[in-house]
Design goal:
5-stranded parallel sheet, globular, binds guanosine-5'-diphosphate, binds adenosine-5'-diphosphate, GMP kinase activity
């Protein structure tokens, strides 16, 4: 049962599950940010364990939602949390392209390449801001480069299921919170994750459908030079990072986690290759492609024909129709956003 909760001024709608066998109602753990209560809803049970919820009278990009009740993502979370779990995903227009995981040894140039990508395509990519227990470098800002976290607090949040993945790297705890990925995908942008090989392995084993890129240095000597030239670590920290680098490179190249391997010798050349891998080499526009919100007429009727949902405007002379192609559901991050193809037909 999905329902509003106006009386208690709780501004998100609640979910309850009815167990037919025991005739009991219970409240599952609800992951993701759900829709706010509205005047009316239409709902359809879809294949793959999802319920499509369409809200009436909603502002732009607030009207299409999926409650995932038995999707692969939800099944995985149920196992992890050992409780009943459901997850909200927001429907966004377009393909909600796959998130990009970038790994590589410290100092290889991951951060530099990601900054170049975000600068050239600001509306296309968003960075997943990780949590870490390491101290900030002088140029780093909390909430922008990392969420600098207290170890105890972060460990508790990991236990509570708030993290997509986490790992201990160079003696500190690092992790990607569900909320960080959600913040990027909710804005319709393609998410970039800069995480280590262990984190990439966890993401690979999860149901997050991502592409995996490993960045390699031209040599260990060059890696050492870059780390020293960056000047952000003490000698002891540099030594630790170099010791870890050899194992990381070996695993990165031979584990089969990474479908794409990129050598960062000449920076400009490497950046060009990265753009080519992401299919961006032909893109000349600075703003790239935007995934637009889905804008529905306030007053409408909803019907379902095979795998199309038809939303028809009512109460006006121009009766606009919007067709959602639910067979097109793909990409995005489960439990956050789902891409959906939308056709608008004007009469
Ligand atoms: N698993 C995991 N690794 C992360 C995360 N965030 C950063 N890392 C990795 O932690 C390592 C150290 O990162 P950082 O301290 O910023 O140093 P840098 O790589 O030398 O810039 C790098 O390999 C990052 O890719 C995360 O959320 N999860
Ligand atoms: N291809 C390259 N050639 C020379 N220096 C580079 C190259 N790529 C990155 N750098 C420099 O190497 C240092 C480490 O890069 P950074 O992006 O911080 O690495 P990471 O995020 O992988 O730890 C930075 O000072 C950066 O300017």
């Amino acid at each position: 049962m999905i329902g509003g909760n106006h009386e208690r001024n709780n501004f998100s709608i609640g979910v309850q599950i009815h167990d037919k066998n025991s005739n009991n109602w219970f409240s599952p753990i609800v992951l993701g940010t759900g829709p706010k209560p509205s005047q009316g809803y239409s709902a359809f049970v879809l294949e793959q364990g999802r319920i499509l919820v369409i809200k009436k009278g909603s502002p732009r990009n607030e009207s299409i939602w999926f409650l995932e009740v038995d999707s692969p993502y939800v099944r995985e979370q149920k196992k992890l949390l050992r409780k009943e779990v459901v997850a909200w995903s927001k429907g966004v227009r377009g393909n909600a392209e796959k998130p990009i995981v970038i790994s590589g040894p410290s100092g290889v140039g991951k951060g530099t390449l990601i900054s170049m990508l975000m600068k050239e395509f600001p509306s296309m990519f968003g960075f997943s801001v990780s949590h870490t227990t390491r101290s900030p470098r002088s140029m780093e800002r909390d909430g922008v480069h990392y969420h600098f976290a207290d170890k105890k607090v972060m460990e508790k949040e990991i236990k509570d299921g708030k993290f997509l993945e986490f790992a201990s790297v160079h003696g500190n705890l690092y992790g990607t919170s569900i909320e960080s990925v959600e913040a990027v995908t909710d804005s319709g942008k393609r998410c970039i994750l800069d995480i280590d090989v262990q984190g990439a392995r966890s993401v690979r084993a999860s149901s997050l459908d991502a592409i995996f890129i490993f960045v390699c240095p031209p040599s260990m000597k060059e890696l050492e030079d870059r780390l020293r030239a960056r000047g952000t670590e003490t000698e002891e920290q540099i030594q630790k990072r170099l010791r870890n680098a050899e194992a990381e490179i070996k695993e990165g190249i031979s584990s089969g986690i990474f479908g794409l391997i990129l050598y960062n010798d000449n920076l400009e050349e490497c950046y060009k290759k990265l753009k080519k891998l992401l299919g961006l080499d032909e893109v000349t526009s600075v703003n790239g492609v935007e995934i637009e919100g889905i804008n529905l007429p306030t007053e409408h009727t909803v019907s379902k024909m095979e795998d199309k949902i038809i939303i028809q405007e009512t109460g006006k002379e121009t009766r606009n129709k919007i067709v959602l192609d639910i067979s097109s559901l793909n990409g995005g991050a489960p439990g956050r956003t789902r891409g959906i193809l939308v056709d608008a037909i004007k009469f």
